[in-house]
Amino acid sequence: MGDILSQLAHLFxxxxxxxxxxxxxxxxxxxFFFRPMTAVLKKREEQTTGAVEKAREQxxxxxxxxxxxxxxxxxxxxxxxxxxEAARRSILGDREAALKRARKQSExxxxxxQTDLAAEVARSKTELQGACQSLGREIAGTILGWTAGEKxxx
Length: 154
Hints:
Layout: H1 2-144
């Protein structure tokens, strides 16, 4: 067994330069390759995470602005509808006032025409009565044979 141990010790002694070489290579790789690579990957992850966060914030801000825009648009529509309704009511009020004025004018004209017609009827009745009396006298005079100079019997 001593022979095996001496061979193992000899192999171990021969492996020391290889182990040292691997260890030194590991330290060099760690210092010049793995650390910078890890730093770059970490920075890249932070930037990606930051960009995602920034995108989320911007999306939230855009949604908020969109909601505000929709609210403003809805308020503007309601204002337009309110103004239209006010204008429509105003126009209807003006129209109603014009109709009332026209009714009053037409009633006044009808009333005036009725008064004029009643006066005309009264005048015509008076003229007809006078004409009837005169015509009646002429007819009576013609039938009874009176002459123009004779007096009618009373």
